[in-house]
Amino acid sequence: MKPTNISDPAIRKRLIVSAGVLLALGLLALYALFDPGTSILAPKCPFKLLTGFDCPACGSQRTLHALLRGQWLAAFRYNPFLLLSVPYLLLVAYTTWSGGGRAARWKGRVQHPKVVLTYLALLVGWWIVRNTPLWQ
Prior knowledge:
The structure is a single chain. This protein is mainly α. The chain has a domain at 57-129. It contains seven helices and no strands. Helix 3 (60-68) runs antiparallel to helix 4 and helix 4 crosses helix 5. The longest helix has 25 residues, at 9-33. The radius of gyration is 19 Å and the shape is globular. It starts with 8 loop residues before the first helix and ends in a 7-residue tail after the last helix.
């Protein structure tokens, strides 16, 4: 058996991707097992701690926990914008990290400046709306 040459960029990339996947799976397992709403180990939102207002991502840990447990309605209640953003964010990740082919064809549409700016405008709008008395 030929020894693995870790300085080979293709092998190094596979190792990094594999380590990232294992880390992500480990984090998902932790979020499935432990409720971040009650766990003292779950990170708290620094924006909310400093200002008392919710940031656009507040509730994302609880949303992930609920999704991993199949509690779709609870996940939607914690952060509806995040839940509705998941397909778009997955497409952005796919078109960014995948090679050519279909991903390359979709990248121009998914990451078009107008699409990105529209998403950012919706994100800021969500940030404002979630901190109004009407949302509470």
